[in-house]
Amino acid sequence: MKKLLFLTLFGLAAAMTYAGGYRVGLQGQRRLAMGHTGVAVVDNAELAFFNPAGLVYLEDRINVSFGASAVFSDVVWQNEEFGQMARTDSPVGTPFYAYVSYKASDWLTLGLAAYTPYGSSVEWPTDWSGSHLVNNIDLQAIYIQALASVKISDKLSVGGGPIYVNGAVNFNRNLNRTLSDIDGNRANVTVDASGVHAWGWSLGAMFNPTDKLRIGANYRSEIIVEAEEGHADFSNVPDSPLTPFNDTRFDASLPLPAELSIGASYEISDKWLVAFDYNRAFWDVYQSLDIDFQDPAVPDSENPRNYKDANTYRFGAQYIANEMFTLRAGYYFDESPVQSGYFAPETPRNDAHGFTAGLSVNITEKLSIDASFLYNRFKEVNESYDYYMENGQNVPFEGTYKTVAFVPGLGVTFKI
Amino acid sequence: MMKNYRFLAVGLLALGIVSCEPDLDNPIDETGDVYENGEADFTHYVALGNSLTAGYADNALYITGQTNSYPNILAGQFALTQETDEFTIPYMNDNAGGLLAGGQPLPGFNNRLVLASDGAGNNSPSIYTGMSATTDITNILEGPFSNMGVPGAKSYHLVAEGYGNLAGVQAGMANPYFVRFASSPQTSVMADALAQDPTFFSLWIGNNDVLGYATSGGVGVNQAGNLNPATYGSNDITDPQVFAQVYSQMVQALTANGAGGVLINIPDVTSIAFFNTVPNNALVLDAQTAGNLTAYFSAVSQVFAGGLMAQGVPQEQAVALASQYAITFNEGPNRFIIDVPVTQANPLGFRQMTEDELIQLQVDQSALASGYGSVNLTAEVQQVLGLLMAGETPTQEQANILFGGVNGLDDADVLDSTEISEIQTATASFNQTISAVANANGLAMVDANALLNSVADGGLSFDGGTVTATYATGGAFSLDGVHLTPRGYAIVANEIIDQINATYGATVPKVNVGQYGTITLSNEVQ
Known about the structure:
CATH superfamily of chain A: Outer membrane protein transport protein (OMPP1/FadL/TodX)
Number of helices of chain B: 16
CATH architecture of chain A: Beta Barrel
CATH class of chain A: Mainly Beta
CATH superfamily of the largest domain in chain B: SGNH hydrolase
Shape of chain A: elongated
Oligomer: heterodimer
Number of strands of chain A: 23
Helix content of chain B: 25-40%
Structural class of chain A: mainly beta
Distance between the termini of chain A: 18 Å
Strand order of the largest sheet of chain A: 1-4-5-6-7-8-9-12-13-16-17-18-19-23
CATH topology of the largest domain in chain B: Rossmann fold
CATH topology of chain A: Porin
Largest sheet of chain A: 14 strands, antiparallel, barrel
């Protein structure tokens, strides 16, 4: 318990990319073990994220679920033309979640949720070949949400609530491919903003045509995080009026895209449940990462991203082995929102196959330990980022990328 | 309960079979899998040469320059093809670049040049003063070193015993850079290289055998015909036979154990930024000044002709000889006047520069702006001009005052056509030797002469633009105008790689030129 608390606290400090773009799909160990399906699964408080409409169908008065994952993910890049190679040494990300629901009446359940659906932490070797694009990035966003779930009938419910987002970003890269001080130390900039907040909402509905089949839909709104007056610190800039890069403030905005989920679950027998989810992440909103420096002498930084909307297809199954053990497994296919030619090493993501498994151990009737494991398989991909400019000319940064990610997670479900 | 343990065991097994490290299908770090060394053996690569090999730039040798030297770039790429020994470099102590001897600054070995700027568009190369030099040549480094490039070395210096003897530095018999890493005071560069038993070598030597003559504006001696290099001065042109002999000997010694190698030839010194930055027609005049200068030289011509006739020279002959001084100037750019030796054909010892003649980079620009290279119109000169306008005949003294107004460029600031042709003859001969020696020994040969000519003539394109020979902004030449930038050295390294691959059937990858820097900016100057 203490350890979990520690993990949860540590989760505030780091989160990690592990779905398309900087989406981190790790919002519940039980659901993750089933391929992160859950928009139509009524099981525990993880519904607060997956579909708050379902919370009202939970049988117990109080449901609590919390947990965290440890994301081990690294990327290798090489350029065969020039014999260059680099590997990330990214810190272990620990996204977390904590959900509580309270049945206020037969038709109304209230809830509170905290989760980290977006984040990224990538650390390339300082001054590596792509250091003009990124040396390291740490992006975090914590969602805190109040929820209400309303039963319209035994067959239909709705739920949702406002989301408060608190985000932080720290990003370092070299100013260009060559600029350095007298000792050859590369000139670089760190942009840092924290305590950036914004508001959004989510809304879901659940329909139960039979007592075996559930159908769900959930929509989480787009949230644009606007960093204002962030710090931009320049290092190793030559002492020259030709390079007037003094520390300044910056404004930038980063979209956390909307996501629509539609899915169904079916209880084949007392022991077997299967589920399918379709997600669409509206990444099209992420067209460019623009950093507006306040000091007029520092040129603004414009970095085209041109993401496209991306789909994820998720499948999961659950088997209740006995009173003590419930086993789960799943698979998903996660499309990358990154288009060819826009493959930037700060979020080096191509399409992923996710293989998941997990189990719940019912310690008592009220308390379960939920464990999950995710393995992400990526194809090796030859890609480039073509929109870095030098002297008015696009200079592509290209190479072969390969990513590996595996994510063990542990959680607790408690109900009274 | 057994069943329950089995579930856990399966879970743990699943954890065990996935690896955290992503692996590529053809990882380049598994040496030899992707790139081939072919018939070359890069196990122990030794680089021989002069400043260009050492990574000298901006009029100094300093750490980052050494790191970006073409031999170090090559060694990094060689290591992708096979297991190689570490490429060792006799690193300087700092990035300031100056030399000390026994704690005292060594005259002539200043800190590096950096580009200073006043922020209003006026940029000037200046000596870096952000830190004092800390590299003391009395601090002898423990070798052996793979990069044996010695700034200032000429061909015959590489075989000169005692070239690294501290005691010989002051007398100019030894080289302070070699003093730092010679294995003994008596040794030669070649002996220290051979002692390492290199499996592969590069040799780029001979540049200084013409360069010193060139950068000094041809004040040295063309030693063609003198076969004793011991009698040569530092600004002399080496006799081609001396070069050929010492060069063949060196290559013979280096290949004796079967080592492969690459020979790099001598660039045309007229293609370097040092001679192409101050144009010979930078005398830009308005119409009035041009008219004044034309009138002045017309007066000089007439007075000179008059003087000759007064001495009994027939008019026709006198006018013909004097007519060379009636130089006309036009509005806009005009070529400068240079001083030349007084001869019967040119008794006043000046003329206007011809189209192909060159001015060196370090010419005093402010002097050029105030009459250096044309006429010093002093009050006395003007007075004489006034007399002439009034129709008076000048005295001998007045005529001399008039002639004295001519303020031609000094020989040291100019490469005249004779000097250029001497340099080109020697360079062509050296390059013939290099080419023949490469052929005879089956070695790779890099035509640096053609490479730098193409940089100077239109430039070479890379992923971030075009590298040209334009001073300071072109990207190829460092601020001394002679030595290359890291980007320039990377271009050379790529050409060397091409030739090695072609000769030895290797597939050494090139480097990305755009990732190598050019000149360094700093306002930490005096």
